[in-house]
Design a protein that fits this description.
Length: 248
């Protein structure tokens, strides 16, 4: 199985920590976030991965080298000239992830901690035949992805303004779920992603919203308890750091 870690972000909300390092290398529980993500992916059976870089790129590359690429084959997708966001970043890595064998790809944000068994999630994705399977939960969020009773994505909702996408979507019978920053995609995603791309830089969430009416994009809620955290701010990072230290 293959994977990709989105590690190129600027981490502006994590300043001052990211003034001298990339957000992928801020630590929680004494371990860099990139280390947590890589160990979780390797434990799930990922043998080849892509890590994209932009902010302090050489520090990320050095970190991977010092950890012997966590025992797997790692390709660095260099975005130091232009940050491409998640959709553009995935397209830029297509050469390593789309090998014609149909192998699914786990996509993981570097500022997300999730200790679920990704093998179970990947198996669910493969059985469904979906283009993409998104890790979601019922946690509070100002914006939500909307799913029907089968957990097939139907659109998007801004809970503060009641705006929906598509605009005419009737959301009354749909379930709002927050996206948890981890997804499994099939290589079939690449051609429609190429056709959708409004520019080299774009969010994959915008693609999902556009594509969900005509493609199976599924939500996945783990049946097992797991520790999840978004460390996008200094305050959230401190909470995860304390939890991991107490757990250890």
């Amino acid at each position: 199985m293959r994977g990709m870690v989105f590690a190129a972000g600027l981490g502006t909300r994590l300043r001052p920590l990211t003034l001298d390092r990339p957000k992928a290398l801020v630590e929680a529980g004494g371990v860099a976030m990139l280390g947590h993500v890589m160990r979780h992916l390797v434990a799930a059976g990922v043998t080849e991965a892509v890590v994209n870089v932009h902010h302090f790129p050489d520090m990320v590359i050095d970190y991977l080298d010092r950890h012997d690429n966590f025992g797997i084959k790692i390709h660095v997708s260099d975005e130091r000239e232009s940050l491409l966001d998640t959709g553009g970043g995935l397209l830029a890595a297509r050469q390593w992830l789309d090998r014609g064998d149909g192998e699914p790809v786990i996509l993981h944000n570097a500022d997300i901690y999730a200790d679920i068994d990704f093998r179970v999630m990947a198996d669910s994705h493969s059985r469904s035949g979906a283009m993409a399977t998104l890790l979601v939960s019922a946690r509070d969020s100002s914006r939500a992805l909307l799913f029907d009773g089968r957990m097939r994505m139907r659109g998007w909702l801004n809970r503060k303004t009641a705006e929906t996408r598509p605009a005419a979507l009737d959301a009354t019978s749909l379930h709002g779920r927050a996206f948890n920053g981890v997804h499994v995609v099939s290589p079939t995603i690449f051609d429609p992603l190429e056709r959708f791309a409004p520019s080299p830089k774009f969010s994959i969430t915008d693609f999902y919203i556009s594509a969900c009416q005509d493609n199976d994009i599924m939500g996945y809620q783990s049946q097992a308890d797991y520790l999840w955290a978004d460390v996008g701010t200094v305050e959230k990072l401190a909470v995860l750091d304390a939890r991991l230290k107490n757990k250890r």
